[in-house]
């Protein structure tokens, strides 16, 4: 699945798959734009037959969820774990630390989402 997701991303972004790392940021490193993210979601659905929620896959509600957790005096890591069950607790900590440098979505997050959704189906 990792290889195929890198291939999909490479094809859509006109890059070489072997030059894409799981640690690459989709927007910051690979310069993906909104339309590219939409196409990645569509491609994941077509390739793996999984349900794709753009808001979950690309963490679109991340800041809103963080703000709600803060307003309700809840632990942001726990709230994010509930909202994004495909992400490990370690990755959630990284995202929180990296939030000032947003966008924070990496190739490994796309892989984690696809694997999680495939396992559910």
Detail the topology: elements first, then pairings.
Blueprint: H1 2-13, H2 34-48, H3 54-57, H4 62-71, H5 76-83, H6 89-98, H7 107-120
Structural class: mainly alpha
Number of domain modules: 1
| CATH architectural group | Orthogonal Bundle
At the third CATH level, what is the topology name?
Non-ribosomal Peptide Synthetase Peptidyl Carrier Protein, Chain A
Number of helices, where a helix is a run of at least 4 consecutive DSSP H or I residues: 7
Number of strands: 0
Helix content: 55-70%
The average pLDDT score comes to: 97
Low-confidence stretches: none
| Name of the top-level CATH class | Mainly Alpha
* Termini separation: 15 Å
- The value of Rg in angstroms is 14 Å
Strand proportion, as a percent range, falls in: under 5%
Within CATH, the superfamily carries the name ACP-like
Outline: globular
| Biggest pleated sheet | none
| SSE order, one letter for each helix or strand | HHHHHHH
Describe it.
The protein is an all-alpha fold and 121 residues long. The longest helix has 15 residues, at 34-48. The protein has a single domain, classed as Non-ribosomal Peptide Synthetase Peptidyl Carrier Protein, Chain A (Orthogonal Bundle), CATH 1.10.1200.10. The model has no long low-confidence stretch (mean pLDDT 97). The protein contains seven helices and no strands. It is globular and about 45 Å long.
Structure keywords:
121 residues; 60% helix; 7 helices; Non-ribosomal Peptide Synthetase Peptidyl Carrier Protein, Chain A; globular; mainly alpha
Can you summarize this structure?
The chain is mainly α and 121 residues long. It has seven helices and no strands.
